[in-house]
Structure formats: C-alpha cells, structure tokens
Amino acid sequence: MTSYDVALSLLASGLVLMILSFLYRESGWFSFAEHIVVGGLSGYGAAIGIKNVYYQGLTPLAQGQFWYILAIIAGLLLFAGLFKTLAWWVRVPTAIMIGTGIGLNMRAAVETQVTAQLIDTVRSINTASLTTNINNLIIVIGVCCVIMFFFFSTESKGALKPVGIVGRYFLMISLGSSFAYAVMGRTSLMIARFQDLLSYPNYYTIFLAVALVLYDILKQRKTS
Amino acid sequence: MKLETLLKIDSRWIFLAFLLAVAIPIIRPIGLPLKISENTKQVYDAVESVPDGGIVVLTPDFSYDNTGELLPMLETFLNHLFTKNIKVVSVSYYGAASPLLMETAMKSVGLETYGKEYGMDFVNLGYIAGDETAVAAFGADVHALVKVDHYGTPISELTIMENLRSAEDIDLEISLSAGMNYPELYLRQWQTTFGTKVTGGSVGLIYAPLIPYISSGQLLGYLPSMRGAAEYELLSRKPASAIVGMDSQSLVHLVFIAAIILCNIGVLGSYLKPEGGEDET
What we know:
The structure holds 2 protein chains of 2 kinds.
Chain A: H1 3-20, H2 28-62, H3 68-77, H4 91-121, H5 130-149, H6 160-197, H7 203-223
Helix pairs in contact in A: 1-2, 1-7, 2-3, 5-6
Chain B: H1 11-27, H2 38-48, E1 55-61, H3 67-82, E2 87-92, H4 98-109, E3 122-127, H5 131-140, H6 142-145, E4 172-177, H7 181-194, E5 198-202, H8 211-215, E6 223-224, H9 225-235, H10 241-272
Parallel strand pairs in B: 1-2, 1-4, 2-3, 4-5, 5-6
Helix pairs in contact in B: 1-10, 2-9, 3-4, 3-9, 5-7, 9-10
C-alpha cells in the first residue's frame, strides 16, 4: 500500500465518519461531507454527460453522418426552458422522448408484465408434491383476493367483504416481506462501510471520531 | 418498570446497539451457518450453462450509494465468469458512476489473475444514456449505437465486439440493479423480444416485487443483496467480503427484531395505562 493509497483510504473513511456523525447530532462535519458527495457526484455526472454527447453525437456528425444534427438540435431544445420566450420548444424533445419511450415500452410490456404473469398464476393443484399444491393454491387465492381488494366498482359488502379482507392480509404480508428485504439491504450498506472502517489504516480515524464525540459530550456537560 | 418508558429510549442507544451488532462479528467472526437457496443455485447454473466462448453482457446499473449491496455481487460474478472461457461485455444504462464502479471491481478482481486480456475477453462500454430507448437500440444493433468503449477506443478495434451484433448474440444478460425498472427493462427489450436469458441480482429494497418474475421463469434466479452475494461466493468457492458480512447481518436482524418487540411492548404498556391512576405494571 503506497502512501497515496493510505491518504485516500483515510480521506474516504474520514468522510464516512463525518456522514455517520449525523446519528449523534447534526454538525458542520456532516454538512461538509454532504456537500462533497453532492458536488463530486454532480461533477462526475456532468463529465460523463459531456463525454456521451461527444462520442454519441458529435463524433458521428464529424464523420459525415449528418442526420445526427437532428438529435443534437433536439437535445439543445431541452435548454430552451431556461429562456422565457423559447420555453415552448421544450415540448418538442420532451414529446419525442415520451413517445419513443412509451412506444418501445408497450411493444413488449403486455407480454412481459401481464401475459407471462397471468400464465404463471394458473397453476396445477394436482401435482405429486403436497407442499407445491398448497403453495400453488395460496398463490391463486392470494392473487384473486388482492385483485378483488382493488375492485372499486361495487361497494365491498356481502360476499365481497371477506374476500377483500383476505386480500388486505395478503397485501400486508407482501409489504412485510418488502420491508424485511429493505432492512437486509440497508444493513448490508452499513456492514460494507464498517468492513472498510475496521480495516487498516482506516480504524485510526475511528479513534479520532470517538475522541471528538467524547470531547463534545464533556463540553455539553460543562455548559449545561 | 413503566412499560411505556420503552418508547422514550434515546434513539442513539439503538444506533449504538446496531453499531455493536455490525462491528463485533467483523472484528471477531462467529461463523454462523449459511444455507444456499435454490434461487442462488439457479443463478449459478445459468452462468454455468453459458457455452464455451459465449458472450455475457453484465449491466451494473447502480451507483456509489449501493456499493455495499451490489459491489460484492459484481465481484463474485466477475470471479466466476473469468474462470470460464466466456467473453464479458460491461455496459450500464443507469447513473454515470457505474463505469467507474466497474473499474473498481476490475481492480479488485484483476484480469491478469485469470490470464484474460482487455478487448479480447472483457470490455467496459461505459454508460449509455437513454434508458428504454438505449436498451432497445443496443438489442437491435450494438454497433450502430456504440462507437467507442469507456476509454474512447473504437469498438471496431476490439476483438470481443466482432461477435456481438445484437441481443440475439447475447448468451446471458446479468443485471445488477438498484432500480426496479432495470430488470423489467431487459426482460421487455431483450428477453421477450430476442429470447435473451436474464439473471443477476438487486438491492434488497426492490427484490420482493421481482420474485414473480423468478417464479414465472422469466428471470433465471435473482440474487437478493448481500445475502445473495454471500451464497454465490460460497457456491463458487471464492469467499470474499459478502460472506464475512453475513454474521453481522444475522446479528443486526436479531437486534432489529428485539427493537420491534420492545417497541410493541411499550405501545401495549401505554394502552394498559389506567386513566389518571397508577401505571405500575
């Protein structure tokens, strides 16, 4: 590990600790690190954007593919919104993007997100495995009940009411599952940061952070 | 003890409990068992089934905020792919930081470790703006859309790109996604349109809504967050950071469950508190 790598590593872990300091209380350290993150990512994003325009638009144009000028003009029109008198022109590239996007989406969306899912819902409950039969039955009942829960054309009463209630419970189980996955994901982010922080030479920054927090606690006790 | 006092605990004590649950197993690993799920086996088999000399397109559609979840997954996929005679093409349609993340992963994995060569066995095409439009255009005609790789080298000079003309030439698409729309996008534009096989992994937040696609066979398995990466590391016999983090993961979940139970006891205590009377329970 070169001294350059060590310095970069310490800087990164220092910034992580500055962000984590928010859990103790909001401070100037947190704002400083937050601004660096926003500034750094915006700068990098802008550079990649310019690079994209250069390679995907200007280079083919310079090579004689003149129709690329239409895409470049459409792209420039997106900035028309910055000028009050030209603002209307923003609608042209926006319409192109929305139209193309929806068109491309729709050509396969029905098959991918509706038909294939519908086919998968129709399951046999007469297989050799009892657990598979039970699971398949739960899926069919669950899908039907949840769809009925979102059926708003008639009032939910009589026979429809218990179906809607069962649908709501299926929805709650589904939301619980989503929440649990979210917890796992967010925990993973924290673990990864701590794996970095607890490795050499980053753990030195932890001592500094703990010392700063202790100093702050003592200072607050003195003032109160 | 007044049960409702559980609701007044300073949240910083809970943060400290989480911090200890994360840090202790990293400093002193416990070695809790990890079971490999059928889902992970499906993903592994999908990679194993890529023919000799086949082309895999790897799409790291995430940014720096999701590295904790998806970088170990990206590295474990690269490690597995490079042990085989497979051409790997990396391209991203999300967030400008993705090509840089691919560089980070490649630095950790190392092409030379596996005797692979840039341009021959692997290429980083970088970020392509346009989402649905870009993915559809890539699927229809790669060479019409992409002119240079991430470093500005014309793709006509890269041997690996000779046999990749459209999505029909892709033997497997591995999507590493931080957004729900990306796996769906590859399913719509490549799997449904060209029959391309799709697998990969995602952040935990968007995983549950993707399960129906695994169940229907549209996705050939899909790894959930760090847990998926850890199982894959175990299966490919290349233990790395994800597997090390799983002890912390299990311990944090126990702390989380304890916090939920304590909080509910506190709420119950506040319900049981008699109006204007003694609240000792």
